[in-house]
Amino acid sequence: MKKYKKFIYIFVIILVSSMSIIIYRNISKGNEQDPKEKAFSELKYVEVSLIDLLNELNNISANNYNISITEINKKDENNKKQNSNTNTTTSETDSSKDSTNTDTVEEKYDLIQNGILNTSRDINWSDIKGKIESLYSSMPVITIDLYGMNINQNDILQFNKEFDNLTEIVKDENKENALIQLSKIYDFIPKFAQNITDDNIYKMTIDAKSNIVKAYSKLDVENWSDISNDLKRSLDSYSKLLTNGNENNTKQNISKIYVMLGELQSSANEQNKSAFLIKYKNILEEMNNI
User: Fold this and answer.
1) Helix count (H) and strand count (E) of the chain?
2) What is the dihedral of CA 162, 163, 165, 169, to 10 degrees?
3) Cα(111)–Cα(65) distance, rounded to whole angstroms?
């Protein structure tokens, strides 16, 4: 009887251990991110970061409003009120002075609209350099994952080389060259997307977006002929989405963006830089909603 109990006890231990190992392996597999999904997430991170840097060179913000904080020194305010009051008694004045010996600072919050027409022309190069260094820290992992997606190795090497070139340009704080260089780097995004995702809407949108970015990057040098050609390519690329069978909500957004692209090209033909920037910002916001 004792032998049977011992056998059953050992069997139960082995069974429980085996089940634990199987469950652990299944959980581990479930926690592992699919390599393609991981590479796609990283590609989108790089894409958003590049657009952010491009926009910051013209102080274009995705937020429509910024919060301005002003510090108010209550002691100064009290002293002004005290000096203006000439009918107080000496004792009241002394008492008032004693009560205002301690500085009290309060913060006043104001909403300031972020618009193209009222934006500052000063570039925050320190912030841009910090963002590029932050992006740099992610590049080794992103590069390894790109190699795992059967992407042309020369394209990956060139992508990293162009990113290295960007650091020198930004270090010299050259706006025109920085815009052109960021556009060169962005041009790799639609190439990589072809091997990373099966999302056709994303791939076509990014392809159209890359031509918008090219046009935008030439705005400071006012190469209006090239800008117009870039936007024509963007329209041609985006028109393919109009004929695809997409959901109604997506179709409406696609049609809206196509119309907005036509308006953007009109601003380029008229060589209206301010109108171009406003429409450029609006198109990017609309593209993010797809």
Assistant:
1) 13, 2
2) 130
3) 6
pLDDT of residue 243: 79
In this structure, the chain runs to a length of 290
Architecture per CATH, domain 35-59+123-198, reads as Up-down Bundle (1.20)
Token representation of residue 44 = 């989108």
Q: What is the model's pTM?
A: 0.73
Determine how many CB atoms are found less than 10 A away from the CB of residue 197. 19
Backbone angles phi, psi at 110, to 5 degrees: -130, 140
Angle, CA of 209, 213 and 216, to the nearest 5°? 135
Residue pair 217/254 in contact (Cβ under 8 Å)? The answer is no
CATH architecture for the domain at 200-290: Up-down Bundle (1.20)
CA–CA dist 144, 6 (Å, integer): 52
Pairing relationship of beta strands 105-113 and 65-73 according to DSSP bridges:
antiparallel
Q: Is the pLDDT of residue 183 over 70?
A: yes
- Across 6-35, b (16+ Cβ under 10 Å) vs e yields eeeeeeeeeeeeeeeeeeeeeeeeeeeeee
DSSP state of 168: H
pLDDT at position 16, please? 42
Tokens encoding 82: 């005290």
From CA 284, how far away is CA 213, in angstroms rounded? 10
- Pick the closest to residue 158 from 146, 145, 172 (CA basis): 146
DSSP strand E in the chain: where? 65-73, 105-113
In tens, the pLDDT along 97-121 reads 444 455 566 655 444 455 667 666 7
